[in-house]
UniProtKB/TrEMBL annotation:
One of its GO terms (molecular function) is identical protein binding. It comes from the Bacteria. InterPro entries: Glc/Gal-6P_isomerase, Glucosamine6P_isomerase, NagB/RpiA_transferase-like. GO terms for cellular component: cytoplasm. One of its GO terms (biological process) is glucosamine catabolic process. It comes from Singulisphaera sp. Ch08. Signal peptide: none annotated. This is Glucosamine-6-phosphate deaminase.
């Protein structure tokens, strides 16, 4: 039996984007998990698989915990993708996004390796070939659902403002991480020193993320409030890549009171 759906504080739309504000992180995570679980179940009602792209960050903790507990999902038919990975980090590195998703989701629900489509961040000798191979995979196995977050600088995945392109012609690329992004990784507790934070990463591009018919975004905490304000009230453009969500009719932005404080 699934938990009851949380009652939102408020909800509204900005352009095409549905925005739902929740009382706290726990309710935000549960509501987002219910949406994703229902979407997966609907997809599997008339297809033999669901391709889901996941974000890896502490902001996803409550959402992923609720998703793991969801009884509606037939995980045997879910194929797991992820949206970014540090260049040069192997899958067992404590800060690897693959390791995070294994520990918070994939191992817990029993998705085996042959149903995981993960970016090999340790591939540093020929990153272009790695990008081309993963792009071929994305085109042959189109994404059904994207589960994302927003960075403190307004990034989607690792599309930081200096490198984001809302009309990017490719689906995945290697980017240099900006200072605000690297500082966020440090503040999130992923690294001990700023010098340890990688300077480059693989990332799905904005068009790749928004190609999915359903995009669910969870953004908790006071440190994200300014990014939420820019996303919802600023111009749509590369200065705040997450603003592109406002053009997506299947996108839902889940906030808590802290992250929504400037838009309530």
């Amino acid at each position: 039996m699934s938990l009851p759906e949380p009652t939102p504080v408020t909800q509204f739309t900005v352009d095409s984007l549905r925005v739902v504000v929740h009382e706290d992180r726990a309710q935000m995570g549960r509501a987002a998990a219910l949406l994703v679980a229902r979407t997966i179940a609907e997809r599997l009602s008339n297809h033999d698989r669901a391709n889901v792209v996941f974000a890896a960050a502490p902001s996803q903790n409550e959402f992923l915990a609720s998703l793991v507990a969801s009884p509606e999902i037939d995980w045997s038919k879910v194929f797991g993708f992820h949206m970014d990975e540090y260049l040069g980090l192997g899958p067992d590195h404590p800060a690897s996004f693959r390791r995070y998703l294994q520990e918070h989701l994939f191992r817990l629900v029993g998705i085996p390796g042959d149903r995981l489509r993960l970016i090999p961040g340790e591939q540093t000798e020929s990153p272009l070939q790695t990008c081309l191979a993963y792009e071929t995979l994305l085109r042959s196995e189109p994404t059904d659902i994207v589960c994302a977050g927003i960075g403190e600088n307004g990034h989607l995945a690792f599309n930081d403002p200096p490198v984001a392109d809302l009309l990017d012609p490719v689906l995945i690329k290697v980017v240099r991480l900006d200072a605000a992004c690297r500082t966020q990784q440090l503040n999130d507790g992923c690294f001990d020193r700023i010098e340890d934070v990688p300077t480059h990463a693989y990332t799905l591009t904005v068009p790749a993320l928004l190609a999915a018919p359903v995009v669910s975004v969870v953004v908790p905490g006071p440190r994200k409030a300014e990014a939420v304000l820019a996303t919802l009230r600023g111009p749509i453009g590369e200065a705040c890549p997450a603003s592109a969500l406002r053009r997506h009719p299947g996108a839902t932005l889940h906030l808590d009171r802290e992250s929504a404080r400037y838009v309530l």
